[in-house]
């Protein structure tokens, strides 16, 4: 049986969101966070469907009201009840593979990025949504392996790009070496090769180095990646080392990747003085568009222009994600795309 993990640029049926609620860490900034979610929802529903996981019936009514007031096309919205601990759909949502061109949803284990946060409810969201039929007739298969969607990138041709510091963290899958992890990626996702990054990390990132904050496959031969141009910034050296790693990688045909640098925004800190992991690499590719997180920073325009050159046939849309970054994530982290059937 042939298995592949479709790339993000493949045609999509929709995008999944898990809406924030007041009994979570979002409570102090809930209105600002909801504004960002509504903006994402509006852009998605202009092009494809949207699935929204809600905490309970009262929350569902509130979410629908928020979406309607934000001029979201409600004809393209499906809501369902699935209480969660948090809102990071990229990591608790389903990964959709194609098995001989038939979509199958994989429900990997989510343990709060190696046990850092409570995640029992989040880990049940995908199954609860599937039980309510929001994914249609697609099969759902649980996988007894801790894996977050933000930790891997796929070119749809058998290449998986990831970071060793995340996938090899003992608090995720203790006792497994790199060969065992690669075997799992081959078995479940159809990986023919795994490209491991050894360098690159953002301060404030508690995912142990998700690749979707650092380096993103944009096509089978193009990678957009974060760079730091300030030699006094502690990110400068590690990201330069990552750039050199990326430059040494080769496509399956033996060619270097085309590398697209995305400069880090200026440092953003929370009230406790902790630096937040703001990155333009946390963009979402959807049908006909790319949604790019912005931070009211001069490098926002640099990133938008760079990605416009990478995706000339898609609209490049900046979305202010300063509210999301206060909870240490960004735009890609709160979304999960649902690929179309071939």
From TrEMBL:
One of its GO terms (biological process) is putrescine biosynthetic process. Keywords: Hydrolase. InterPro entries: Peptidyl-Arg-deiminase_porph. GO terms for molecular function: agmatine deiminase activity; protein-arginine deiminase activity. The keyword Hydrolase applies. Signal peptide: none annotated. It comes from the Bacteria. This is Agmatine deiminase.
